[in-house]
Design brief:
A hairpin with a 3-residue loop joins strand 1 and strand 2. Helix 4 packs parallel to helix 8 and helix 8 packs antiparallel against helix 9. The protein has a two-stranded antiparallel sheet. The protein has 2 domains: 69 residues, Arc Repressor Mutant, subunit A; 150 residues, GntR ligand-binding domain-like (Four Helix Bundle (Hemerythrin (Met), subunit A)), CATH 1.20.120.530. By secondary structure, the protein is mainly alpha-helical.
């Protein structure tokens, strides 16, 4: 982006005495008034949006200032248009850090409940039974952080995971046993208050889940060819 374009935009705002909450003209009109291309204008607006000086809403236009709370995306909005790959990526970024924090803050009761979930997962004979205790296991880790914002995000992630097209099914008993063993490794690291090990085991577990889901998709595709 050419700096003069941003300067011209800021001059326009000052000359018209626009303030936070005021709308800018449509892109086509504004580009013509500034004598720049729409591509250059969009680049300048993107720079201002990144610094919190304007906000843009689909079908709403561009406004000066920070985005009002009533137009802010909600956690529940994460569910719309989210693919299994999106969820897997988010979990890989989020849950290892989450369990590392839980390792420093989990109570004795938290650890006992997580141990119970790991045992229940190991004893699960059906996918439905596995899912029940798996979802509780990951939610309990979130709750062990004692951070309401992180707990809320973990609840949303669990909510997305129950969707039929996203859910990681465990048809084979050996798969359930393998994942349960990984759960136990995470619990052991939590009990040892080893945040680094807990994060590492969680990442390994999520990569295993992700790999198995990808392999299953490949198997289905192969059958269809």
């Amino acid at each position: 982006m050419e700096k003069p374009v941003l300067d011209a935009l800021l001059d326009y705002i000052a000359q018209h005495r626009l303030k936070d909450g005021d709308a800018l003209p449509p892109e086509r009109t504004l580009a013509e008034e500034l004598g720049v291309s729409r591509r250059e204008l969009r680049s300048a607006l993107a720079s201002m949006e990144a610094s919190g000086r304007v906000w843009r809403g689909v079908g709403r236009g561009t406004y000066l200032g920070a985005r009002p709370l009533k137009f802010a995306p909600t956690l529940r909005g994460l569910r719309v248009g989210t693919s299994p790959a999106d969820i897997a990526e988010m979990r890989l970024l989020f849950e290892p850090a989450l369990v590392a924090l839980a390792a420093t803050k989990a109570s004795g009761d938290d650890l006992q409940e997580l141990e119970k979930c790991a045992r229940k997962n190991a004893a699960a004979k059906t996918d439905d039974e596995w899912q029940q205790w798996d979802h509780r296991f990951h939610l309990l880790i979130g709750q062990a952080t004692r951070n309401p914002a992180l707990i809320a995000l973990m609840e949303v992630i669990n909510g997305m995971r129950v969707k039929p097209e996203v859910r990681e099914k465990t048809a084979a008993q050996e798969t359930r046993q393998y994942f349960a063993q990984q759960h136990q490794e995470i619990v052991n690291a939590l009990k040892a208050r080893d945040a680094e090990a807990a994060a590492r085991y969680m990442r390994e577990h999520l990569l295993s889940v992700q790999w198995r889901a990808s392999a299953k998709v490949d198997e289905v595709v192969a059958r269809q060819i």
